[in-house]
Amino acid sequence: MENLVQEAIQNVNLHAVMPSLILSVAGMALLLVAVFSPRGKTAHIAWLSIASLIVAGIVTIMGWNDTQYGFAGSVQLDNFAAFFSMICIIAAGLAILMSDEYLKRENFPVGEYYPLILITTAGAMWMVSGTDLITIFLGLEVLSVSLYILAGFFRDQVRCNEAGLKYFFLGAFSTGFLLYGMALLYGVSGTTKVYDIAAYIQANPDTTTNVMFVAGGLLMLTGFFFKIAAAPFHMWTPDVYQGAPTPITAFMSAGPKAAAFAALIRVTFICLEGMQDHLTTVFWVLAVLTMTVGNLIALNQKDLKRMLAYSSIAHAGYAMVGLVAWNEIGSAGILFYMLVYTFMNMGAFAILILIGRSGEENLTLDGVTGLGYKKPMLGIAFSIFLFALMGLPPTAGFTGKFYIFAGAINSGYIWLAVLGVLNSAVSLYYYLRIMIFMYFKEPQEDYAWVKIYPATAVSIVISVIGVLYLGIVPGSIMQLARMAGF
Amino acid sequence: MTLALIPLLPLLGALIPSLFRSRNLNALSAGAIAGISMLLLLLQAPAVFNGEMPLASWSWIPAIGLNFAFRVSGFGFMFAFLILGIGLLIVLYARFYISADDPMGRFYSYLLLFMGSMLGIVLSENIMLLMMFWELTSISSFLLIGFWSYRTDAREGARQALVITGGGGLAMIAGFLLLGHIVGSFELTTILAAKEIIHAHHLYPITLILILLGAFTKSAQFPFQFWLPHAMAAPTPVSAYLHSATMVKAGVFLLALLFPVLSGSSLWFYIVTPVGLITFMFAAYMAMFKDDLKGLLAYSTVSHLGLITLLLGLGSPLAAFTAVFHILNHATFKAGLFMLAGIIDHETGTRDMKRLSGLWKYMPITGTLTMIGSASMAGVPLFNGFLSKEMFLAETLEPNLFGAFSWIVPLGATLAAIFAVAYSIRMVHDVFFKEPFTNLPKKPHEPPHGMRLPAEILMTLCVLVGLFPMTLAAPMVNMAAGSILGAATPDYHIAIWHGLNMALAMSVIALAGGAVFYLQRLRLFDSHRWCMRYCDGKATFEALIRGLVQGGRTLTGLMENGSLQRYIALLVGAVFVLGASPFFGSSVPFIGPLAMSSVDPVTLIMGLVLIVCTVATVVNHRNRILSIIMLGSVGLIVSLSFIRFSAPDLALTQISVEVVTIILLMMALHLLPRTTPVESSSVRRGRDIGLSVLAGGGAAALMLAVLSRPYDTIAGYFLENSKPGGGGTNVVNVILVDFRGFDTLGEITVLVIAGLVIYAMLHNFELTAPGIDALGRPWVQDRFPMILAQITRPLMPLALLFAAYIFLRGHNEPGGGFIAGLIVASVLILQYISSGIVWTRPRLTVDNHIIMAWGLVIAVLTGVGSWVIGYPFLTTSFTYLTWPLVGKFEVASAIAFDLGVFLAVVGSVMLILVKLGSMNSKDAEIVSASVQKAKEKKEGAH
């Protein structure tokens, strides 16, 4: 017993959790700072949060190609984890950049907001680097609980409360399934470490037909499907995305989703390889469902935030095509796509923040009528994001989608690629509709209330650069994704 | 490098024109950029005419096989020449056409952007690069068509064009991906050399269809022809450029480019030929009846594109040769005609042929030019259109794969040619002759010369090529066709006169028939009305979109109504389907090999009671008290089953937890309305019952499957090591405070935090409990019954003593800090319940926060203590002491830890319950006071 303890302590290796450690410590410290800051003053917390994100990012990048194992193999900070961590860091950074002025506008500048984002990000990092089901679960819960709070952050707005509560209820359900599944896997193999489970299955090949293993694997996956909002586990997304504070919506659609993808990939590709036949079917059915449901329902939405929510469901569907490929290119495709998606989607949400008014009354399609003329720069940026979401060159949306679909074709899933392309064609319709309203209609308003908040503008500029850079010269980043791929 | 600059220069320079304010500078800078590109292209001419193919390549995204590679093939050269040549003329034309109110700089920017992407398409060596330029033309044409932004028709036209061409482009991406997958490379040179591999591959059909989709949508081929006429809302320079010479030609360019590898199969013939033929005929027919000048030209363009497609579909080398020639001719006359239509529009204010007439007197030069263009369009001898049309008609007569029905092709071609003559005559006669005009918005006059110059140049070319084809066109056509066909290039002599043959006869029939048709047009106009209404694909397209939107709406209604119940129902249903999916049709038995153990009557009865109570809880959930009682029974049965299976410790824990939970529930429910209305329909309840039976059944089946298989447990380890390792015989307690001490520390921390959070949330939060029950009866007025109070007060010391006993024996016998904590909390809260807050509060003055905090501190200190003496955190040690009276007693450091647990439990449970109970306190006092008052009043009345 004591030996076990000693061993565990020796195996801690804090390097393996350094980025998330930095964020969680910074998060807790900033919580204290927030307590002692005068009400309404939150900018310094935002900037400190960004500083800690930058530090965590640098530490993550420095760990590239230098895999660290920690906590007796419960955590593994490899390229895969580092890449996904960077996505989460970028998403958190962009979300914070677009938050401060927004919170002031919405009359709710409360300091704990930023530490919560940091802690969510730390949770996401545990998910992406976890090689123990418990670590992954821990990360998932840290992430989820912080997001429940953030989703319902404006506690005097009914819609926001509804978002938080719905997310919490449905999230609790799905976590229950996830945990049940993990418990069953543990019951089969006697371990929660993903590599040990894989080894156990290798030693006992008949496990793959064991009811406990199969049902456990699938139940666990439902938890991840819920987090990536794959249909039919997506129901929470529109209501929550619409009700949550916009920067949080943007963040949720990128960072935590990427983290869930990471955990899904790691667990599936390592532990559940024995179920590959069945799982590829599951993945591709869900991928098609997700794309189709997302796009078809998005066609009908008048509310831009909700439309983007559905579009984000559809994009998760495209990314899932990479899962079907079940190979290195597939997972590299997901890595790359999630990065691309972070920029294009968060950029679009940042625009929504700028054109919104306090209380967010102005987020319908009509609300952007003629915006392209009254606010040309915003219009151009929005157009770039929309083109990227459509998947048109020279934006990153094209290269990302291309990479994913190429992987599917190379694995023989031609129909899946074709369906994906058809879905993109449907999506053209509703993305274009926004542009039509922006450019081809006489402006009804002068958009005098639209103020270009400097920090939000910075986040938009970063996103534009990201979308164009990854669209025009994606080679080097794609190479990194390939190195990180599973 | 110079090669790559040809397409890149307009792309990179696209911003430059919009930097200037002066309209002349706008046009000049755009012209200069296009001119430099043209020069660079001409630098390549010697090599290309020599039959070489200059290549330039840079690695770009190797991961996906995307190279930045350009080539100048003969065909590409011809196209690039057309794009730049006509582009330059358009730059000049637009300078005069675009009015001063419109942002000229932006127009030129879009134009250059488009020019660059178009050049990219024709000069790309890598098909993925080609793809990117292809989509860029979609985007930039979207911008150009929508240039007159506020017009509704411009808006719809632009969106329709982008949805269709963009969508087709996406299909083409898939096709290209497949092509690259088949060949193993995205380089055109490699692909073009791999005809056999491609044809033999099983993916050839789908590849072909996807690529054709891209080409057909771009070139407005049937059934996608409708977007082009609706894109005519664009400014005329745009139409002249995009819809005659460039963008719409991209589709046929692609067909011709991949002609060597994709054609030659029957599939190719059976798709491409009919599509070409139908488009050719149908669009020519529609063109006759368009009153809008540009609409007429648009349909004419579609028709001519159909002609080219038809030629490529026929598949013979000579047909391909003719197609190349016709691309060149059509671009020349059609660009000119669009410009002339623009001039007429510009100078008269309308393009409606019903209003235009008798312009000859006012615009003779424009009229002459229009006549030349129309003659060429109609295929009148001595103009360039005649040459390729004649060759085309000759080609249609060749036997083809339709076998016995081969005659359909020449018949259709002749018919279409008749329509073409008719609409060409109409364009000239209706506009320039007939009676004098009556109601034109402007008084017509000749345009400024700069505006007419481009059309003059193009029309002169039409005539010159028509007269001297061998000198002017043949070298270019031979070279272009040669680069496509390679060794198979026919040695063809383009000539005006081929002798009296069938093709000539068809031409004559077309000219004569067209004239007759035109004379009979008024009667025809009436008969084709239905066609105008129903044959416009726009309606179908819109219906399709409507259908999609409607489908989306239905789906939305089904899935997203904002109801959490529905979401959860969907979630549970989906999990069930997913979880059950691998077991359908699986050969592995679901139930494991272990036999079921026998059931004794007691267990069976307990199980049955459990089920009945659970069902009763659900059924009676509206009747709160009843359902709480049922829930309590469930908990009780569970405790009993723990005892039955020899786990007294668990049973004790369960019972105490049960008590506290029930108290908590009672307090919370007290604040809620007595009953909840029935909101769900019976259908929904039926669904929910079904779902819960499924989900519950699934969980039970899973449990059965798990338990009927042999498994190892970890119990053995703990049973063996509990005494020697932890010094206690109560394994549960040893696990809690020793083996899993760290977990427990975490748990009590969570408990403490939860207590604090609940306290914080309920603080300053007042709820009014209803003073009456569902039937309107007030609550008992005696809120604190004397008997209850009198019994509970002496109970307290007894319970405390019992708790101490439970606590102390915990390490070896059932008991421990957790249970003891719950017992103490229950008995304390009982005082509040039986005697009221007003009585209890002054007597229980210890702050629960402090108890709670001490609990945590003690637990942590115990852990730190073992650190201090050199062991890892929370290592326990124990020894035995012999106490007087008690006897031999074990003292383990774990007991201090357990004390921490005890205090934390007491503190947090009390904190929560007292807060919850006192939320209603003021209110309760007021209620009782008012009841008292009412009572007094009643008595007073007596």
UniProtKB/TrEMBL annotation, chain A:
Highest rank taxon of the organism: Bacteria
Its job: NDH-1 shuttles electrons from NADH, via FMN and iron-sulfur (Fe-S) centers, to quinones in the respiratory chain. The immediate electron acceptor for the enzyme in this species is believed to be ubiquinone. Couples the redox reaction to proton translocation (for every two electrons transferred, four hydrogen ions are translocated across the cytoplasmic membrane), and thus conserves the redox energy in a proton gradient.
Domain NADH:quinone oxidoreductase/Mrp antiporter transmembrane positions: 131-425
Source species of the chain: Pelovirga terrestris
One Gene Ontology biological process: ATP synthesis coupled electron transport
Protein name per its UniProtKB record: NADH-quinone oxidoreductase subunit N
Pfam family, one: Proton_antipo_M
UniProt keyword annotations, A-Z: Cell membrane, Membrane, NAD, Quinone, Translocase, Transmembrane, Transmembrane helix, Transport, Ubiquinone
Automatic annotation (TrEMBL), chain B:
Main location: membrane
The keyword Hydrolase is assigned to this record: no
Ranges for domain Na+/H+ antiporter MnhB subunit-related protein: 787-910
Pfam family, one: MbhD
Assigned GO CC terms: plasma membrane
Residue stretches making up the NADH-Ubiquinone oxidoreductase (complex I) chain 5 N-terminal domain: 60-108
GO BP annotations, alphabetical order: monoatomic ion transport
Keyword Acyltransferase: no
Swiss-Prot/TrEMBL keywords: Antiport, Cell membrane, Ion transport, Membrane, Transmembrane, Transmembrane helix, Transport
GO molecular function terms listed in the Swiss-Prot or TrEMBL record: antiporter activity
Residue ranges of every copy of the NADH:quinone oxidoreductase/Mrp antiporter transmembrane domain listed in the record: 124-398
MrpA C-terminal/MbhD domain location: 609-674
Topology of the protein relative to the lipid bilayer: Multi-pass membrane protein
Alphabetical list of InterPro entries matching this protein: CPA3_Na-H_Antiporter_A, MnhB, MrpA_C/MbhD, MrpA_C/MbhE, ND/Mrp_TM, Proton_antipo_N
Subcellular location: Cell membrane; Membrane
Highest taxon listed in the record's lineage: Bacteria
Protein's recorded name: Monovalent cation/H+ antiporter subunit A
Annotated organism of origin: Pelovirga terrestris
